[in-house]
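dumping the sequnces here before i forget
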Amino acid sequence: MNRLVSADQAGGANMIMQAALAAFVKHGFHGTSIREIASHAKVSVALIYYHFTSKDDILRSIMLRVHGDVIEELREVRDACDRDVRTELSGLIRAHVMCHCERQAESFIGNSELRSLSEPALQEVIAQRDAVAGFFKDVVARGIADGTFRTTQQPDDVVRAIMVLAMGVSMWFRQDGPQTTDDVVQTHITFAMRLLDAAPEG
Amino acid sequence: MNRLVSADQAGGANMIMQAALAAFVKHGFHGTSIREIASHAKVSVALIYYHFTSKDDILRSIMLRVHGDVIEELREVRDACDRDVRTELSGLIRAHVMCHCERQAESFIGNSELRSLSEPALQEVIAQRDAVAGFFKDVVARGIADGTFRTTQQPDDVVRAIMVLAMGVSMWFRQDGPQTTDDVVQTHITFAMRLLDAAPEG
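..and the predicted 3d for all of it:
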């Protein structure tokens, strides 16, 4: 569900974003032309310019959508939690890692083509990434304060490690591989608890 | 020092690889033409074709060189160690993370443009990556066998986490940032020891 355009336009814009995403994964942002996106989406170049101002705008929309969805999911997890920090951190990792498993192409492009965003889109996406990290920073800080978590490193370094490990999933995970998404989630929860010197949840 | 061509050719080939690397970081592999590489390197297109068979061959050479150098360094670390697994793992992490700090562009391209390699170059580079991981798998297996390391996850998952965390360094580390390469190395050694439930070295 595209949240950036009104419902009656969502189908067309979404189809274009999907085609662009596939092309970006294959040839990179700079290696893909608007004409190729139109050809893959089986739409006219004119229709692309009806929905988007430029190729940059398509990349921006792809990134804002996936980050926006992640932020919404993380917020739901946080709001549903009873403030037990291990439960909350586990829930946040589950939502975050699941996204990297299920929306692998968007996650990969979100990292590898961040360099291709121009301003002010870059700052918009960086603000969203900071918001994602913010959920983790917040729960880690509370866990350190109440003694559940312990780290000899800077808490921000641990949060970055949790982010990087999830990002890695978008690079190595294979839907048809030996591990289920649930296996991957459990591994990442275990790793985070170890990095924070906390007992496994439960 | 370019190890793929004879010494008298190394200067030219190296200059071309450096120019190509900068262009790939900026515009991606598919977004960069041989002509642009020639222009950045201030050489003729003909000279590029004297040193390399194609743009693919330049990417292949960049990747083989950096992986080859890492493998050589990891081998030196391993051979210098007295088989204490914590010392060996720390040394391997130091060499691996240092490379991601100091050869950031090559490390970033090594990950983001792996998809752009065609066969058989892709298999060559994957074999090198497996060799890099092999050093870590070997020491982790010995550490688990002798009781120094403990993990509830698959040892290969822990090794992959160590690889992914190093890869992340090539994306976020800034030479002019608040952390020195030594800080980053120490953090990654600490993280690995925590993932393996081992006491800090020393």
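The mean pLDDT of chain A is 91.
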